[in-house]
Automatic annotation (TrEMBL):
Keyword DNA-binding: yes
Organism: Liquorilactobacillus aquaticus DSM 21051
One Gene Ontology MF term: transferase activity
Record bears the keyword Metal-binding: no
UniProt protein name: DNA translocase FtsK
Keywords annotated in UniProt: ATP-binding, DNA-binding, Nucleotide-binding, Transferase
Biological process annotations from GO: phosphoenolpyruvate-dependent sugar phosphotransferase system; regulation of DNA-templated transcription
Amino acid sequence: MKKARFKVRDALEELLNGGHQDISTEEIAKAAGLTRGVTSSYLSQLRKDGLVIKYGTKPIYWKIKENTDVFSKFIGSSGSLRKVIESSKSSVVYPPSGFPLIITGPSGTGKSYLASLIYKYAHQKHVIAESAKFVVLNCADYANNPELLSSVLFGYKKGAFTGAEKDTAGLVEQADGGYLFLDEIHRLPIESQEKLFTLLDTGYYYPLGESKEARQVHIRFIFATTEKLDNYLLQTFRRRVPLKLELPSFSKRPLFERYQIILHFFYQEAVSIQRDLKIAYGILRSLVAISSAGNIGTIQNKVKLMCADAYRNDNSKRHCITIDNKKVFLEEYVLLEYQKVENFEPVMSVGDKQEVLKLISVLKKNEHQNAPISDNVLEIQSFLHDMKQAVLNIDLDEKMAGVMAKRVKKVIIFLRHRYGLNLNISDSDVRTLTQFLDVMIHFSEQLNLNDIESLVRSVKKRYPRTTYLAVLATQQLNFKEIPQNLVTLAMVFLIFAPKVNDIEKIDMLAIIVSHGETMAASIQSIVNNLCGNYIFESFDMPIETSMLDISKKIGNFINQQSQTYKGTILMFDMGSLSQMYKEIKPLLSSDLLVINNVTTATALDIGLQIQQNNQFKEIAEKAESYRDVISTQYYEGLSQKQNIIVSCMSGEGLSKEIKNIIKKVSQTDTDIITMDYKDLKNSLDNHDHEYFRNTKVILTTTDIPQHTATSIINIYDIMDKPGTQKLYALLKELGESDQNINALIEELLKFFTIEGIGDRLEFLNPEVVIKEVQKITSKYEKYYHLSLSGKIKLNLYMHISLMLERTLVSNNSSNKGHTIHEQMSEAQLEFYSVSKNIFHDAEVKYNITVNDYEISLMYELLRPLIVD
């Protein structure tokens, strides 16, 4: 789907093509099917991007801007290289004759191309004559022969050296009035640099062999190098070049621009072979992921080879050639048509609709399964993380993001002031919210609103008080271009999530009603802030408001509540308002306490009791004072049924534990036989294959030489990938499902972790803590798309279990860890942010805070798996 602002541009273009003139914002809005406000915002963005022109006053009219800027073909000119292009233009137009510049960057990043565009721009701006030349010299060609270089640059007089039979003009003279581009300037010898900066200073030079009559030229200089200037160029030379521009390597370019570069190369090949190209997104993803190539030419060569192979293999000589890799992403393609103008905007502005729909589906599933709210927070974070890496990446509209951020911060202040919620929202959290909402804007037309409403109902059912606050926040944010339910969901998951448990633990409905403009809100604000939670809602009523109107307003509020409270408390400022008892009571399914003549002190007392989860009866009574095992089955020897033998050297008890684990997850009618290790050895030594014909596998805790009778697996080998695969294959033969096999391996990991940490944990129960550890590990796997081997999982289980206890102990002492954010790389910062969410439930459960140092240890454990 195109970005909305490009839909607006298309609507304008269609109107113009249809013969319309002087097209207003209202006409464009109608054609695009958007509101006038939204259309106006998008038109402003398009104007800023140089795509449309605004003219007229009242009304304002719009037209498409024809792009004649020579730099427009340089990918990134309006993006990451905008400042480079602007500086390049300045070097051309600055009076009286511009100034020299030097372009740095790895080989093949476009330095020569940029230099040629600067020359063309000078022609376009008429600051050089039409006949002015663009003369190029690669200094590396003459690096070992300074004299030859001087003669090439400055020319020479007849007789200047052997073979100099006539006066010969150099490149400097040829470039007179135009541009001289010296590439690989770092290969220029020192003596040549000295001659050159004299030319830069005075405009005069001496050809080789000339010492009396200097020649004058008017030249504009562009230099380029792949090296650091300080290492090769004289300081006196560097001072004479005021502008230094750097072009980044391919891997340092923004993702959006890397895709544009790759598509540009494919388009060039399509034109060259006169065929349309149908390119698998997987190919684009693999090319854009190449991080070792600083040279864009490397990418271009890869594209050329792919097209050549596809052309050679296309025996049918069809009009369209398909370029794909059957190993990746065959389900999606992009079509480049060679007969059409090169334009990738529609391709680059398409969003991965399926990923958004998948996200909504997963959020719904998690809510139906009563998953922790942190799971859905992580799902959204993962979605945004993956969107940044997707082919169809959506760039955040910074202008809109700024507007959103200001409104969100204002709402955060409101929630803290009115409802006592210190949400501790960082700029990063706000940006995550705005990124999510920005993505939703792009996909709003594709979303099934019924699915969204269903998800909101599920969220409201689980988090009614939080959802109520989120709806209030949504109303204040006033993002009309986004479905309000989506904003509410974003607020619940990305803003309120850390406070959900506190907000939802309040099991009574408390309301303050007062005559006047601010009294009720003032008391509510004080009490909620002192309690540090949303306890009270308030209603301020003008004196002239009737009892019926007040009752209706409170009734509407009560009807919005989707949970059954243990009691409702109404606090009024005047006795007359207590008459509403008869109006309000029928709306409630709980007891009602009415307190007249509300004060801050009495409201605070009530609020503290509610916060402490006191019983309704207790609060009502105090209000009066305001007035003055697993069974197992043991088999010896051979079973006549399909069976698995478990035999552990450390004893039959351990064997039975493993048997119980297998039986718990098994879905097939397979006997699990436990045997004494000595008996097993005797049986293997004294019986042949026939004796074990129904035994599919023997599981042990020690190495036994392989026997022809049946397969033997050391249980500890399951922790490694080959062992896992072997057990997996054997169990599949028994008819076990993938799900059950994975569950068995997970249970064995859990069992051996408990066995390993049982004697090392002093405070935590191994049986309990392992469940939390499994959740934590699973979340890391899901976020980073990992499939950890059993051995790595076992290591993680052990480490995290001991870490949780270590943190529990250290949190009760003076050692709170230390902050190391300044030392973190970008990957570490992302890992830190994700980890804080992943450990959230464990922190709440054990009342601990996992510090930065512990997270850094986790990062070191997982770094080889998550960092390229």
